[in-house]
Amino acid sequence: GEALTAAAAEAAGGFAPKHGVRVVRRELDLALVAPLLHAEPICALDLEGELSSGPGCAVDLIQVYLPTRDLVLLVHCADLGPGAVRAALGGWLQSRDHVKVLCDVRADAEALLHRYAIRLEGVLDVQLAHAMLSGDLPQPAAGAAVAAATTAPAAAAASPEFFYPTGLSRLVAK
Question: What separation in angstroms does the CA of 46 have from each of 73, 139, 154?
């Protein structure tokens, strides 16, 4: 009963979420869950809302799955405001030390940059990984690669074959 609930709360960093889901609507709650994010080496991440880089950009919800705690955080951004989201999550979202797993990161990364001035780093895009492994990524034309290598060998050697604007070029180069 109570001892089990207390042990579960302590194991989850002081939180005893119902059914493994915690809705975060207040700045205090966001400040309390931030250390949980920093303790996870890898998380699943997704954003919901009008994810664009235009004036109508709105991030309604940030969903984070913390696998070691089997916990889902639903950060309700509309209730928190941009300053609170940036202050509490900006460092983690920009950290390369914490891997964020997403599917098709482009819209999420653009929305974070436009709405919160947060450049998403430490990303593993499963859609891109699948395309790479299945050979679905476009390959550069052989003639273009040879021409680039003969006209500017230093530039060709210094830059990757593909550029991923979310920082994935560095991940792929490793």
Answer: 11, 29, 38
Contact between 77 and 49 (Cβ < 8 Å) = yes
In the block, tokens 């235009």 appear at: 54
pTM above 0.70, yes or no: no
| DSSP calls for 38-77 | HH-SEEEEEEEEE--SSTT-EEEEEEEEETTTTEEEEEEH
Written as six digits, the tokens of 67 are: 């696998």
CA distance 90 to 117: 9
Report the alpha-carbon distance of residue 23 to residue 42 in Å, rounded.
Answer: 20
Provide the 8-state DSSP code for 99: E
Q: Strand, coil or helix: what is 11? A: helix
| Tokens matching residue 80 | 């928190």
Token pair 């210094």 in the structure block, residue: 158
The CA angle 121-65-74, to the nearest 5 degrees, is: 95
Euclidean distance between CA atoms 60 and 38, whole angstroms: 22
Amino acid at 49: G
Read off the pLDDT of residues 3-57 as tens digits, 9 standing for 90 and up: 544 444 555 455 555 568 999 999 999 999 999 999 999 999 999 988 877 778 8
Which bin fits 56, alpha (ψ -120 to 50), beta or left (φ > 0)? alpha
